[in-house]
Amino acid sequence: MTEADGTWSDEAEFTTLDEQVGGADAGEETALAQPVLAVVGRPNVGKSTLVNRILGRREAVVQDVPGVTRDRVAYDALWNGRRFTVVDTGGWEPGATGLQGAVAAQAELAMSTADAVLLVVDATVGATATEEAVARVLRRSDRPVLLAANKVDDERLFAETASLWSLGLGEPYPVSALHGRGSGDLLDAIVTALPEAPRDGERVAGPRRVALVGKPNVGKSSLLNKLSGEERAVVDSVAGTTVDPVDSLVELDGETWRFVDTAGLRKRVQTASGAEYYAALRTRTAIEAAEVAIVLLDASEPLSEQDLRVVSMVVDAGRALVLAFNKWDLVDEDRRHQLAKEIDRGLVRVPWAERVNVSALTGRSVRKLAPALRTALRSWDQRVPTGQLNGWLSELIAATPPPVRGGKQPKVLFATQAGIRPPTLVLFTTGFLEAGYRRFIERKFRERFGFQGSPVRINVRVREKKPRKGR
């Protein structure tokens, strides 16, 4: 039984639950567009630690190794009643090449698209040639720029921050991201510098949230770049390039979607350590925060236990699901035949999932993802009226009654769809319904009403036995 199962004793509970349902699905509030603060600086100056201090929670992945943050990553922040978005970036080094060059490009793009920029400098080192190069770029920008002198962990370092006036970016704010020293003054300055609304007119309110998940090196970042039409996520042939979830607003088939590219999930979170462990937790959080997940599978390789675990995470979280089989350009006729067998055997839990065969490399069929996402989300939001549901269920049970249990046959007296996102049915019965019969009801329910692409939960409430009165 699931945690939503329970008991009932009075028929009035039928109508009470049904009446509650109407007000429960008003939907989430539409997210308002927020101004954006980009946090930039050299590698290992403490940008992600300072981001966590600004957020007031541990979100950005932090490790005492340069270069842990590689993509630009967006988080929601709140200070003194003002909401804004903080974009953490990889370390910026002028003239960087290869993977580091891609990271630097992400930081530069964040600077150009933000509403304000926070340059973080290591106060124990002072202004380096890199900071002077960044300052020259920022002085030409029409965005407000703030300067944070980080790692001021004791009073003796306060005097050292005065030298940072030479960067020409105004007053340096001495802070200790690790201990919180000076963070309040910095936050006050940030909300003062940010405009009331974002300048970027393309940032729209409330796009549907899509988590892009899968095992390492399956092509998630490549697919995101193909969808967005730009090098939005850092891509490298080395597995595990993405560490943080990466937010992207992507225009797809005439609609804006918020995609979150996530770190590849290891076999078990417990086997990860350091940055990989926290990245796995962020991926789990990204799935919880999404409405629909695209699970990317490598069609050229056999389905692994890892793939199935990712699918199970999405289903257990109650999110709509699209299965995208990537690298389809590498699949020949023999592999297609073998893959069909693997799907029948391994993905038996999700025969209802939307499926799309794509190639992130060539762009094959990536535009088919938008219709699949819409179908899955429509099902995730779908509701069946109580009268129609009970009429259908009565006919089904009359034709195929529940199996006898303990010498008695349970009866289903009433049913209602108690929720959406995911669709959840509650059956009021006189006895427990076996798991197999619940699956039978779900299968017939889908045959009649659809719900392609969305999980459906079926909960049972069994009538309480009233104690006999003493003679």
Automatic annotation (TrEMBL):
Matching InterPro entries: AAA+_ATPase (IPR003593), G_ENGA (IPR031166), GTP-bd (IPR006073), GTPase_Der (IPR016484), KH_dom-like (IPR032859), KH_dom-like_a/b (IPR015946), P-loop_NTPase (IPR027417), Small_GTP-bd (IPR005225)
Record bears the keyword ATP-binding: no
Domain EngA-type G: 35-198, 208-381
PROSITE patterns in alphabetical order: G_ENGA (PS51712)
An example molecular function term from Gene Ontology annotations: ribosome binding
A Gene Ontology BP annotation from the UniProt entry: ribosome biogenesis
The entry's keywords: GTP-binding, Nucleotide-binding, Repeat, Ribosome biogenesis
Function according to Swiss-Prot or TrEMBL: GTPase that plays an essential role in the late steps of ribosome biogenesis.
Similarity comment: family membership: Belongs to the TRAFAC class TrmE-Era-EngA-EngB-Septin-like GTPase superfamily. EngA (Der) GTPase family.
Protein name: GTPase Der
Organism: Prauserella shujinwangii
Taxonomy of the source species: Bacteria, Bacillati, Actinomycetota, Actinomycetes, Pseudonocardiales
